[in-house]
Amino acid sequence: MNQDKKNIEDVGEFGFIRSIMNDCLRSGGDVIQAIGDDCAVIGPYGGKVLLITTDLLIEDVHFMMGKIAPVHLGEKAVAVNLSDIAAMGGKPRHLFVSLAVPSHMAMGVLRSLYDGMKEICRRYRVNLLGGDTSSSPRGLFINVTVVGEAAKDEVLYRKGASPGDHICVTGTLGDSAVGLKLLKGELSAPRKLRQVFIDAQSRPAPQLKKAGLIAQSRLATSMIDISDGLVSDLDHICGASQVGARIFRERLPLSREMRTLCRTKRIDPYSFAISGGEDYQLLFTVPERHVGELNSLFRKKRIPVPVDIGEITAVAGIACVWPDGSESEIREKGFDHFRPS
Ligand code: ADP
Ligand code: MG
Predict the structure, then answer these.
(1) Cα(126) to centroid of ligand 2, in Å?
(2) Secondary structure (3-state) at 237
């Protein structure tokens, strides 16, 4: 079928992005990475490169106004962009914010939104330098663009993983997906546990410190942040590196709260860990001979050591090794805007 006759939902979010990737460059001289990674990379300028990323958050698609405090929404809009800078091993420096706002929106809400954005910018020493403001016919739109920097040869891309490399993650998986289910009323949890999941969903922390350590070590071969879900984002690394992967289900790191909730509710925590999105942990690959050295760098800094969840393989596809030792390909993918699960 002719591409133009299809709807975007027929090709999916990533099929759409692939369809517009051609003919985007006019003067490619200083473009090191165009469309296709967590940030665009340009330079070098005196040994350093610029990292640029942008993300759009839409009311009732990415957030529900009644379910997240405006101050936390402001923090999150910035945090998810800082996470893309972390994914490349960079340092965020400057930020732009564009809004489309329904006319009836209270100034107090907007003030709180900016309080949240300014607070997280203060925490990570990022300047808010500009943006744009428009009215919106329906719902709040928030677009954030971040400019960061990195040493040219410390940048980590989605490409670069090789068969035999170990696959590591910097923290627990699935808590944010449970938080989203709780906010939507699709799941319930005792009050004490509930807050942990809601915070994972509403107040994700960009893993900039860990990213810096990984990048500066120069021991890793590829990196991405987990925004769409472990398998979906691992699939991006595999696609860009032209490799496959094998993950061990029992090794996936789960929070204590996740284990407790899923045990009492008799639900499978691993489906959240495998395909739930918005963890904003880092997923990266390291050659086997460097794993020990990288882990000891984390120990020296008293930062929790990344969890080794599997290995890169030469055959395409992502396989899961089950607790009984059997292996099968994972078909469930993470979030795609045009292919809701
Ligand atoms: P992330 O989840 O890390 O934000 P995405 O999956 O949204 O990354 O995007 C993948 C790549 O596609 C990035 O390089 C991004 O800049 C690019 N991209 C996404 N949407 C568009 C678009 N509408 N036009 C041009 N490039 C896009
Ligand atoms: Mg990303």
Answers:
(1) 19
(2) helix
For the Cβ of 84 lying below 6 angstroms from any atom of ligand 1, the answer is yes
**What residue numbers bound the domain in which 45 lies?**
3-154
**Helix ranges (DSSP H) in the chain:** 8-19, 70-87, 107-123, 175-183, 191-202, 208-217, 230-241, 256-265, 269-275, 288-300
Atom in ligand 1 nearest the alpha carbon of residue 24: 25
With a 6 Å cutoff on the Cβ, whether 36 touches ligand 1 is: yes
Do 146 and 178 fall into the same domain? no
215-272 pLDDT, tens digit per residue, is: 999 999 999 999 999 999 999 999 999 999 999 999 999 999 999 999 999 999 999 9
Q: Give the count of domains, the chain.
A: 2
Q: Report CA(36)–ligand 1 centroid distance (Å).
A: 7
Which CATH number do you get for residue 148? 3.30.1330.10
Phi, psi of 304 (to 5 degrees): -50, 135
> Do 144 and 172 belong to one domain?
no
Q: Are 297 and 153 in contact (CB under 8 A)?
A: no
Asked if 245 and 316 count as a contact pair (C-beta separation under 8 A), the reply is no
Q: What is the pLDDT of residues 155-172, one digit of tens each?
A: 999 999 999 999 999 999
Which stretches in the chain have pLDDT values below 50? none
Query: Is 89 within the bounds of a domain?
Result: yes
Give domain status of residue 340, yes or no.
no
* CA 169 / ligand 2 centre spacing (Å): 14
Please indicate, yes or no, whether residues 102 and 217 belong to a single structural domain of this protein: no
